Amino acid sequence: MHNNLVILAGGASSRMKKEVAVDNLTTEEITQANERSKGLIGVGPNGRPLLDYLLLNAKKAGYKNIYIIIGEQGDLFKEFYGTKNKNNNFHDLNISFATQYIPKNRVKPFGTADALYQAVEQYPELNSQSYSVCNSDNLYSTAALLALRESIITHAFIAYDRDSMEFPLERISRFAIAKLNQKGFLLDILEKPTAEILAEYKDSEGKLRVSMNAFKFDGKLIYPYLKNCPVHPERQEKELPTVLLNFLQEHPDTALGIPFSEHVPDLTAKEDIAEVKEYLKNHYPELKWEN
């Protein structure tokens, strides 16, 4: 088992910052949505950020070393989780920060693969170890994070049952779906699937599986593919699924889809804030950090 979790928190949060009419948010919540990284929005009963709850689940899953990838304007993270660039103690978690710098010819970050590449360049020890990776704006369960940590397969990802996700059907239909072989290893990831093709992507249990960017990587093996990740032709970003699929072209049957059937609270847009607050109120009435 490995002890390293890399959290992607350097994105532009474009959808969260879009102006929309919402009547169930306070002025402070709207301000935070417009100004903060999504994982720092205060959705807990005590106003603490969503990231607190992800870190709590990571600690319960046994992770020790947390690397948070922040943007160039990400100083607010240090007000919550430690003022030093590395080795901050937050409830016995070792928190370090990596910065995702924006190339001079761009106005937005260059994608999730670029974020991870910059992180492992700043913390090269990760290139000789295994580590997990996840988003800062999704609340993955302790069980899911533990499954990544315990996996003995070279690479793995949490393959969520699409039907178990408590989102509107229209939103779920936009999720990328993963195609697995009979042994559960990843063959392909399809963005924006059409209804006609869904049957071809069902797994051996008859389930449609989606990825929510929760991965386990072997640092040494994945590094060259991170470094040489091509730019997606439509979204003009370097993306982690591209890295993994390029690796699998040369090393098939080495990325296991770990099946999970549970909801993953998600902070993508302002409309999600009230729902996530209600979820935390029901499932985490208080933060309990003790072991």
Automatic annotation (TrEMBL):
Record flagged with keyword Phosphoprotein: no
Q: Which GO terms describe its molecular function?
A: transferase activity
Residue ranges annotated for the Nucleotidyl transferase domain, each copy included: 34-241
Tell me the superkingdom of the source. Bacteria
Q: Tell me yes or no: is Transferase among this UniProt entry's keywords.
A: yes
**One Pfam family from the record:** NTP_transferase
What are the protein's UniProt keywords? Nucleotidyltransferase, Transferase
List the protein's name.
Answer: NTP transferase domain-containing protein
What is the protein's species of origin? Flavobacterium flabelliforme
